[in-house]
Every structure is written in C-alpha cells, then in structure tokens.
Amino acid sequence: MFEARFQSFEDSADPSQGPARLAALRAELARRGLDGFVVPRADEHQNEYVPPAAERLAWLTGFTGSAGTAAVLMDEAAVFVDGRYTVQVRGQIDTQAFSPQPLVDHPPEAWLGERLRDGQRIGFDPWLHTPAQVERLARAAAGAGATLVPVDGNPIDAVWHDRPAAPKGAVSLHPEHLAGQDRAAKVAAVRDALRDGETLLVSDPHAVAWLFNMRGADVSHTPLPMSYALVPKAGRPILYVDGAKLSNRVRDVLEGSAEVADPAGLVAALDALGREGRRLRFDAATVPHRLVEALKAAGGDAEVGADPIALMKAAKSDAERQGSRDAHRRDAAAVARFLHWFEREAPTGTLTEISCCAALETFRRDTGALKDVSFPTIAGFGPHAAIPHYRVSAASNLAVGPGVFLIDSGGQYEDGTTDITRTLCVGPPEPAFVDGFTRVLKGHIAIARAVFPPGTTGAQLDPFAREHLWRAGLDFDHGTGHGVGSYLSVHEGPQRIAKTGTTPLAEGMILSNEPGLYRAGAWGIRIENLILVEPRPIEGGERPMLGFETLTFAPIQRDLVARHLLTPDEELWIDEYHARVREIVGPLVEPDVRAWLDGATRPLRDG
C-alpha cells in the first residue's frame, strides 16, 4: 500500500571493505610520493548532499553520514565526526583500520599535527577544501615540519574502479511567479553589492540556482544543478553549467541573462582574469581552494569572504513567502492523514520505522505536487528517538510498539520546502517524559511568540528555547533552528537560531523552531515547526519590531502536555494554534480525518 520512492533504507556501509580499500589508497599514495592524504566528505561546492561520484569518504571508510573527514597516514588512519554521528560511525567502519575521532574536540589538523614528522608530505584535493580549511591543515603540517601538497587528480579516484559517473540531471526553469523576481533584477541586485571593477565568483549551486531562476537534479533531496557563475560589476555574467543538462528551450532562456559556458573552462577563465590583474570576490564557505589559487597564481586580487547572494536568497520575496504558505498547507493535509493513520495503526503492533517513513512519503506523493522528500526521514522508535539524526535502515528497523516515536520529515514542492517534527507516544507516557515534553513545548512556544528589534541575531533568541530545560538541569546539544530555502536546501544559511547564530534575522527569512530533549537509550523529544520572520508592530512602541509567522500546521499530541507547567499565555497559544490547524487543514482532508483532527486539536481545558 505504501511505498518510499525518494529514499532508500539499504545500509550501504560495509566495514569489511575498509582495510582493502585503505591498502589500495596507501599504495597509490606511495606511488605519488605522499605520506598521507586528507579525505573530506565534500564535493567541489561543499554541498550537504553530494553526487554518488563524490562519496569518497563513504567508499573508503564505510561511514555514510553527511559530515566527516578521514585522515590517512601510512601506519594509522582516523575518521572524524561530530556528535550527531558518534554512534553511527562505530557501526559503519572497521575500527581496527580507522580510529573514530571527535571532529570538534580533536579535529583532523590537531590529529595530524601530533603525528606528522619532519619532511613528510601530506596530500589534499584542492577542489574539495575551502581556503580556510587548507590554511588550518597547512599550519598543522608546517608546525610538524611537514608539507601540505595539493594533488592533481584525487588518488581515491585512481583506485575506485567502479566509481559512478558525474551527474547529468536536467536543468529546469523555476517559474518567475514563484521566484518573485526575474533574472535581470537579481543580477542587478548582485551587481549593486559589488565594488567598481569587482567580479563575483558564485560557487554555491544554491546561489546559482536562485540567481538564474533554475533548478536541477544532480543530488538527492535538493533540486540543485551543479554549476558556477561569474558576475562582473559591469558586463555579461557567465553561467558555467554542463550543456548536456540543458534542453534547447532552457538554454535559450538562460542565454537571455548570461553567457553559458562549460565548467571545464572555469580555471582558464580565472587565469585570464588574473593576468589582467582583476579583483574577484569568492565565497569563503563554498569556493574550492583550487579556484582561488588559479586567480592568485596568475596575478589577480582574491577577496575571500561572504557571498552577497546568501542574504538575498535568505530574505524570501513576497511570492516565495506565499509559495511557502501554500506548500505548508498542502503538506499539512498529508501530515494529518499520516497522524490519523498512525494513531489508528500503531496500537496493533504492525508498524515499523520503515513502514512509517513509507506511509508519510506516500501521503505526500498523493498530493500530486511532491518533487522529493527534503531529506531522508528521521523515524525513530524508543532508543532510536534519542539519536537526533538517526537514519533507519533495513538492519536497524524497529517495530513500533508502546513507547515514544519521533518522526522528522519534509517535502520538496515547487512552491516551497517543508520540515516538521512531531513526537508521539503509543500508550501511557512516563511522568519524566511528560515533564520533558512540556518543557520542550514551552521553549518552542517562547520562540514562536518572540518579539525582537531588527538586528537581533539567532544567538540572542536561542536561550528562549532552553530556559525551561535549564531550570530543570536539562539541555539539548543541537541548534534551535536552521534556515530553510524556497524549493532549495532544507538547511539554508546564514540565518539560524543557535549559540553560533551571528547573522541578524531579517524580514522574509524562514527558519525552523525545533528545541528537543534526549535520554540516551530510552526516548527523544523534538517539536518542530517552520517560522517566517515578519514585521510585528507594537502599539505605542518606539521602535519597529519583528516576530514570527508560524507556517507549519499539525497537531501537537495533547495528552503529552502537563498543563500545570504551562502559563495561561502558553495554554492560550496552544489552543489558538490548534484552532488554526482545524481552520486550515480541516477543509483539505477527508471526513474521517477531519473528525480525528477535531478531537486532536480540541482546547486543552476540554481534557
């Protein structure tokens, strides 16, 4: 009945392959006169989701997480991951061949600095590291008397004999009525942000897609065309994208805004600009070291900093805001159908984590508008709910029975990107869980109700989500909210609500609101809606203010809420939110789902 078409539950990790592949890589390094090599989980654009051909870290080590790095020496190797993947990495790699290491507390450069010896040469692929990453590695190598060496051709590619081909996903045009601006207006805005004589290299495919109102199919879950662009202060932009991905119509439209060129010619173009002494601005977060060095070696002036497109893209146009509202209403109906189905079927003991993923994806596909899931669904029962970035596989799939079930999912629609988490309980919840759930909900409400002046950063709001957990000696180790794109990445920067969120929040930005609480080996709690920054004028106030419009509409399980922990304002927020859920979602679903929805969203005082 239910089917998952946009996500797989096969565990591609095979720790048994690690030692042989590590030996093959070491032999190739020796042939090249290298004593080691650094393997990031990255492609040429630092994408979150990368094409299969760029999954070098997974091929070598077996680790399939979305972030990590391996450092390989001739007698030792390590895999560095952050706290999201501490458990996963140990299950996916051969720990006799690779030592798991904490990425934050003991990063690759520190590990290498302790082990490299005088005169050694450590290789890196200059297409897969940003300049800042290279600088850190080079400093560590130099401190040990070693040398960091850029390679010409990745040595893993030389021993990965069945490596997939580069992606050839078709490029499509993103409609102007959904984008809200035409290509010419966007190019003009970028030019206004540049100084005289300056050219911007756009290395983030999300930014290229936004700038030229195009989308692609080169990676999973995000409609990206792998591409670059050069935008001069004056003159015609150049879009570097594989011509095989362009239909005649798409090429004709894009050529109305830019010269279309093959990406293979980008290095030569930078060399030519460098010989002319031109000044280029590069995006520090995504530009490959190779491209910056190409300009500098030819005599050009390189400025590595923020891409101005990032903030332009983050502040959604009126059309994108309305598109997101429409997408969320459509998505809300699918989520309501899933929640109704789950409440009916979970007590039977027939559900599994995978069957829940497949069911929710099916309900979304049944809308007729789903393009993809926005990320692999996180569906964890019991102890798996305590792993914030758990990804179910056929091997790990648990049956759903009495206890806690957390499901974090989203959809990609042409008019918007969604992301929602609900924590559910089958059977009576334990008191400690109800207490934790209510404290997480209080933090969620505090963010949703926040009012703040322009210039306020996500770091300043982040404590709102944690206060009631802190009062009980509790906390969570992830950010409270990430930015979200418009039919682009579900994890968009630079806006975020987190201790590290230094970008001021501005009107039109979309973020998640997802505080949590996790008890290892037992349960996890996360409540997530998406929110839109909007003006919030205060009668009699002296300054303009901002607040949040909630975009996500789905019931929050009422019997998990401890009313005695709520203030009257918090209880009112929940009841008003649920009233909006009934108003918006009720007309979109079938009578039996509507009847369930009415019960799931009745006022808290009704018991």
Automatic annotation (TrEMBL):
Domain of life per record: Bacteria
Which stretches make up the Peptidase M24 domain?
Answer: 325-534
Molecular function per GO = metal ion binding; metalloaminopeptidase activity
The record's annotation in Gene3D superfamilies points to:
Creatinase/methionine aminopeptidase superfamily, Creatinase/prolidase N-terminal domain
- CDD domains xref list: APP
Cite the InterPro entries for this sequence.
Answer: Creatin/AminoP/Spt16_N, Creatinase/aminopeptidase-like, Creatinase_N, Pept_M24, Pept_M24B, Peptidase_M24_C, X-Pro_aminopeptidase_P
Peptidase M24 C-terminal domain location is: 544-604
* Residue ranges constituting the Creatinase N-terminal domain according to the UniProt record: 21-153
Annotated GO CC locations:
cytoplasm
> What are the alphabetically sorted keywords of the record?
Aminopeptidase, Hydrolase, Metal-binding, Protease
Q: Please give the family membership noted in the entry.
A: Belongs to the peptidase M24B family.
| Stated name of the protein | Aminopeptidase P family protein
